[in-house]
Amino acid sequence: MNKTALIIKREYLSRVRKKTFILSTILTPLLFAVVIGAVVFITIKNVAHENIAVVDPSGYLKSNLEDSKIISYHFVTDADTANFFQKGYSAILLAPHTGVNNTANFKLITERSMNRFANDRIEKDISRSLENNLISEELKIDPKRIDSLKEEASAITIDSEKRGEGGTLAKSSFTIANGIGYFTAFLIYITLFIYGTMVMRGVMEEKTNRIAEVIISSVRPFQLMMGKIIGIGAVGLTQFLIWIVLIGGISMLLTAMIPADILQQAQQTGAQLPGAAGGGSEALQNIASAQASLAVVNWGLVVFCFIFFFLGGYLFYAALFAAVGSAVNEDPQDAQSLMMPITLPIVLGIIIMINAINDPSGPLATWSSIIPFFSPIVMMARIPFGVPDTVPYWQLGLSMGLLILGFLFTTWLSARIYRTGILLYGKKPTLKELAKWIRRR
Amino acid sequence: MPVLELRHLKKYYATQKAVDDISFSIEGGSIFGLLGPNGAGKTTLLRMITGIFYPDSGEVLFNGQPLNAERDIALIGYMPEERGLYKKMKIGEQALYLAQLKGLSRSQAMEDIKRWFVKLEMESWWNKKVEDLSKGMSQKLQFVTTVLHNPKLIILDEPFSGLDPVNANVIKDEIFGLAQRGATIIFSTHRMEQVEEICDQIVLVNRGHKILDGTVKTVKQQYKQNLFKIGFNAAPAITSTPVFNVLHEGADHSLTVKIAEGQTPNDVLQHFLQQGAPIHSFNELLPSLSDIFIQLVEGTPSTRKFQNVTA
User: Fold this and answer.
1) Is B144 within 8 Å of chain A by CB?
2) With an 8 Å Cβ cutoff, is B14 touching chain A?
């Protein structure tokens, strides 16, 4: 058996067999699912129906406030701020006596604070009814007519479509692409750190354990370094694979658990999506549009690019992490200071990404997604916006090509530091000494 | 033909000449001692012999051919001074892993490991982890993993450090056994009494230079100071004579004498016979390697001064 393969096998198995690996791999998506599920559950359950008492002596609101799913308005004369709670209202709305021109001073008095949705709704309802009143006073038209006019107007929405390949029109959603871009870019950022430091610690372990020289007498230092990097990379891929399977399974399970009527509502909302003004809550609309847009994203490409840029970025940085691990001794502080030049570009990458994602075709996004130091993070954020319209093929190709060249270079560089560092004990080398190691035959 | 030949090896570091023009050769099947104080350049020398380092100049011939690390690594077993094992790995698996890295097939490695484990009474260790072993035990394991693949050249850097006398003897016997079966052994240490016991040939290095080369016997002859110890049944009369100087009078009526230039042991004996002194023993006192070592190394700074080297 090839020696590098033997090393890869050991590095891989010794990590995958660990209890912490199994636990973290299974628990992470489970934790995600539980948190998301809990948030959704609480939001759905928490939207309570509120009864509001309205004291409106001038009668401005009476003709315009409409009950909704969340709120029922009761125009009363017998309730006041002292006794509304006893009468079964959760809040009392005091409309001012003054006329149209003095619309300030609406007062909503509650016993306990109401949820945000109810508050928003009330505010919206009041401003709509006042608006209608003002318009009808000024133009002398029936307030009901205003509503129907508005509805007509809002039925016109911009269909966010862009010309796709071959003239077919694909629906695109900036928000969804944005979300996927963010998520995958952050995932790459986090995993670069996790697996990069794993490589570094592995190398440090071999050095401080004094096993490095024993192994180096059987294999070339380069084989040992590459074996470790590839082995740990395989651990990362395994983890992703398990996650994809787990998340897929859990989301299927969750879909099965969502009450049928809500799902149906969502689908109905989806059907009348472009002009769905009044019907359905905003959340349902979001679900529906998300479903529609998720279907549009080229998942095959996103997954392929994710794996490519994860591997490319990992190989690019892991070699550097290995070099740092070989250069330092037990002292974690030494490692910290030598790690700085490596972690800096990664952190810079995520900062660039956060800015670039708002303009995925802009010059910042374009150039930083080609430079290998940042490309794994920034390019990954751009991919969901679409290839080849947002990211032309030449950019993707150039970025991938440079990343491959980049990791070949960092591997070569690191190997030269590694073979000297791994056998050297004593004080932490300076950057100048590292440069000397690189030049040495 | 020598198994290993070093020709004018040089290796300079930024601050010192670790190995500065060292040449020697080692015959097959012999036990060779590489001696020197700390920091003499032993480890650097060994790393060049094992192909871990490239020499700055000079060459290493292994079996008459220039050393090719890729190819020859399987024929060399190296136990470095800075040695260790994976703490969390099971001992059996670890031995298997290291043997496979040396190029043994899994089944072959398994067979050899079992044989060695039985031989050194380590069978019960298989599923233990290295962190459960004492220092001596892991030393034993390290030795087994070094010689497992039947190397032609075995390099042991301080093999007995951390071993109790019983285990040290076990390992020593194994070393002799391996040499008898044709392996060449390089033994690096600064413990002279072990060298005297084990080695056929020695090289002493200090500050990157070779300062002594030869068999233990010839080296001792070379550095003998014509000292003799004479035992008497009764204290002899000591008169001054041009034949020898008395260096020491023992409580048991023995004398340690240094024979003067141009005189022979027979002259000494004759001197005492004429006196009628009752001699019952007459031995040459050869210097111990330790004495020679100290004599040669003394006066040079024990730790090397850092210097700027331009190669």
Assistant:
1) no
2) yes
With 50 as the cut, is the pLDDT of residue A197 above it?
A: yes
Q: Whose CA is closest to B183, among B213, B161, B155?
A: B155
From residue A298, alpha-carbon distances to A287, A359, A385 in Å are 19, 20, 9
- Given an 8 Å threshold on Cβ–Cβ distance, is A216 in contact with B73? no
User: What is the ipTM metric for this complex?
Assistant: 0.80
* Separation CA B295–CA B291 (nearest Å): 6
Q: What is the mean pLDDT of residues A80-86?
A: 74
Query: Edge to edge, what strands does the sheet with B57-62 contain?
Result: B17-27, B2-12, B57-62, B65-66
SS3 label, residue B160:
coil
Residues of B in Cβ contact (< 8 Å) with A20: none
Cβ pair A186, A350 in contact under 8 A: yes
Is B86 within 8 Å of A441 when comparing Cβ atoms?
Answer: no
Least confident residue range of A29-33, A294-298, B119-123: A294-298
For chain A, give every domain's residue range.
3-30+172-439, 51-154
Q: What per-residue confidence (pLDDT) applies to B235? A: 78
Those residues whose C-beta lies under 8 Å from the C-beta of residue B131, and which sit 6 or more positions away, are: B87, B88
Nearest chain A residue (CA) to B50? A217
Instruction: Say if CB B147 and CB B80 are below 8 A apart.
Output: no
CB contacts of A14 in chain B (<8 Å) are 86, 88-89
Chain B segment 84-113 residues within 8 A of A by beta carbon are 84-89, 97-98, 100-103, 106
Q: Which two tokens stand for residue B98?
A: 């290291």
Which residues from chain B sit within 8 angstroms of residue A8, using beta carbons? none
Within 8 A of B96 by CB-CB distance, chain A residues are none
CA distance B65 to B154: 18
Contact A89, A122 (CB under 8 A): no
- The answer to whether the Cβ–Cβ distance between A1 and B50 falls below 8 Å is no
Specify the CATH number of the domain B225-285: 3.30.70
Q: How far is CA A175 from the centre of its chain?
A: 11
Nearest residue, CB atoms, B101 vs list A215, A423, A436: A215
Domain boundaries, given as residue ranges, for chain B: 2-221, 225-285
Name which CATH class applies to A51-154: alpha beta
Q: How many angstroms separate the CA atoms of A349 and A316, rounded? A: 14
Compute how many other C-beta atoms are within 10 angstroms of the C-beta atom of residue B102.
23
- List the beta bridge partners of residue A92: A53, A109
Indicate the residue of B54, B69, B83 with minimum beta-carbon distance to A213. Answer: B83
Report helix angle A221-257 to A393-421, nearest 10.
130
Give kind and range of the element (H or E) at residue A280.
Answer: none
> B311 in contact with A at a CB cutoff of 8 Å?
no
Q: Read off the pLDDT of residues A401-432 as tens digits, 9 standing for 90 and up.
A: 999 999 999 999 999 999 888 888 777 788 88
Least confident of A158-162, B214-218, B227-231: A158-162
Pairing of strands B201-206, A107-110: unpaired
- Which pLDDT score, from 0 to 100, does residue A170 have? 46
Instruction: Specify the 3-state DSSP secondary structure of A371.
Output: coil
Sorted by sequence, the CB contacts under 8 Å of residue A194 that are 6+ apart come out as A236
Which range (A40-49, A201-210, A410-419, B134-143) has the least confidence?
A: A40-49
Q: Cα dihedral sign for B258, B264, B269, B270? A: negative
Lookup: tokens for B139: 């030393």
Determine the average pLDDT of the residues in A252-277.
58
CATH homologous superfamily of B2-221 equals P-loop containing nucleotide triphosphate hydrolases (3.40.50.300)
